[in-house]
Design a protein that fits this description.
The protein is an alpha/beta fold. It has helices at about 20-30, 60-65, 85-100, 120-135, 185-195, 215-230, 245-250, 260-280, 295-305, 320-330, 335, 345, 360-365, 370-380; strands spanning about 1-10, 40-45, 50-55, 70-80, 100-110, 135-140, 145-150, 155-160, 165-170, 175-180, 200-210, 235-240, 280-285, 310, 380-390, 390-395, 405.
Length: about 400
């Protein structure tokens, strides 16, 4: 049997919300480890969670799953012993013997204040025992080859040599639900990941215009949502909106340079309406300030003015290079750079306006009949999918979680 000590992230700071945060994290972890549920036992305490992994060969898989979970600060694979100085000493010696030749350092934390020895005394006893029973180990408190940490808790003592850094952030779900406008590009998947990092559970909305956009473009969106799924809530929704009718109407505006601006305003209007029915409290986009003509601060202002909900733009201050780095780390990059066009890249005007004005946007909108088409689009042209356990199934509405599988590739 192996034991994993899971240290909670920032939630230690949250006062009375603490239990809510811890329970959410535990719930998320249990969902993640559901495939191994016969093989893992959870023991919750104030600052950490211990997971007993009954069969040793599952350890790596369990660790990998935990490393994808927001709200975990770090992880250690630990030896567990009774609070008995001889036993602690013996286990520490075994660990030291397995370590590479050279130097070691002991760190002792005595959380159980009733334990008969002080931290300093524990250190002395354990170090003496190691030095006496090994030939080639020395103590080096500044630059040790191995750091052996001993934590004496009330119930047991834990001994380990490494802390594996995890994703940190907050448990997904504690910050409510957001709706991410997911293109097929690099930025929006990263934006959704960063929103999850701060505890948002994320649903996705993608706009497409078949037959101008190909089935491959849709496959790409399926594939991206599946890749991001491991960081998200156990099950979440993907909405695919056929934007074709609205786009046709938008082709009739006089000032072609406003086309992208108006399209974004329509996206945001639809996203707002959808959010009401799914109880999303914010929209999330992958816009970065100044990255392209449609992402100037003026443009962001004209887009924001049609939104009731806050629009969160997690990568707004990021350089492209920084976004790409994250996208590689979360494994969405290779999919994002596939060449299939989404709705935007097809209708880009030659000279999109870089500093749109709100009144001009409104004037252009007055020239076309968008309201009815928008209503129609929301009622008839949004398809719902549920992403769960690596599959995407067709949903029949928010409350109905059953459906037929439409895609299981990748
Ligand atoms: P991305 O890499 O996310 O595609 P981008 O740099 O290509 O971003 P734009 O194409 O200007 O930027 O899109 C800005 C944001 O608008 C996207 O990050 C996304 O949130 C949203 N968006 C754009 N196109 C779509 C679409 N077809 N469906 C849903 N959202 C979209
Ligand atoms: Mg794009």
């Amino acid at each position: 049997m192996k034991h994993i000590l899971v240290r909670y992230g920032e939630l230690t700071l949250k006062g009375s919300n603490r239990n809510f945060f811890i329970n959410k994290l535990l719930q998320n972890i249990k969902f993640k480890l559901k495939p191994f549920r016969e093989e893992v036992v959870f023991i919750k305490s104030h600052n950490s969670l211990k997971i007993d992994v009954l069969s040793d060969n599952l350890l790596d898989e369990v660790l990998a799953n935990l490393q994808d979970t927001f709200g975990i600060y770090s992880l250690s694979v630990v030896d567990e012993v009774e609070n008995d100085i001889d036993k602690i000493s013996q286990v520490a010696l075994n660990i030291a013997k397995e370590s590479p030749r050279g130097s070691f350092k002991l760190e002792v934390e005595r959380k159980d204040k009733t334990f008969m020895l002080t931290s300093q005394e524990i250190k002395q006893v354990v170090a003496k025992n190691i030095l006496f029973n090994t030939d080639n180990l020395t103590v080096d408190v500044h630059n040790p080859n191995t750091k052996i940490e001993i934590i004496v808790k009330r119930e047991k003592t834990y001994i380990f040599t490494s802390r594996i850094t995890a994703l940190k952030g907050l448990p997904v779900g504690v910050s409510g639900k957001g709706l991410c406008l997911l293109s097929g590009g690099i930025d929006s998947p990263v934006a959704s990941f960063l929103a999850m990092k701060r505890g948002m559970q994320v649903d996705f909305l993608h706009f497409m215009t078949p037959p101008h956009t190909t089935p491959e473009a849709l496959e790409k969106v399926f594939s991206l949502t599946k890749k991001i799924a491991r960081f998200n809530q156990n099950s979440f929704s993907l909405y695919i909106c056929d934007f074709g009718l609205l786009l046709q109407e938008l082709m009739h505006i006089k000032d072609e340079s406003y086309r992208i601006t108006l399209m974004r305003r329509m996206f945001i209007r639809i996203a707002n309406q959808l959010s009401k029915t799914i109880n999303a409290k914010a929209l999330i986009t992958g816009e970065a300030l100044g990255q392209v003509a449609s992402q100037t601060i003026e443009s962001i202002g004209v887009i924001d003015s049609v939104s009731d909900l806050p629009i969160i733009r997690p990568v707004v201050t990021y350089d492209k290079e920084e976004i790409i780095k994250i996208s590689k780390a979360i494994d969405t990059y290779e999919t994002s750079i596939l060449p299939f066009d989404d709705v935007c890249s097809m209708y880009v005007p030659k000279n999109p306006v870089t500093k749109p004005r709100k009144y001009r946007a409104e004037q252009q909108e007055e020239q076309i009949l968008w309201e009815e088409i928008l209503d129609h689009t929301i009622k008839n042209s949004i398809k719902h999918y549920i992403v769960k356990e690596g599959n995407i199934i067709e949903g029949t509405g928010e409350k109905n979680q059953k459906g037929t599988e439409v895609n299981s590739k990748g």
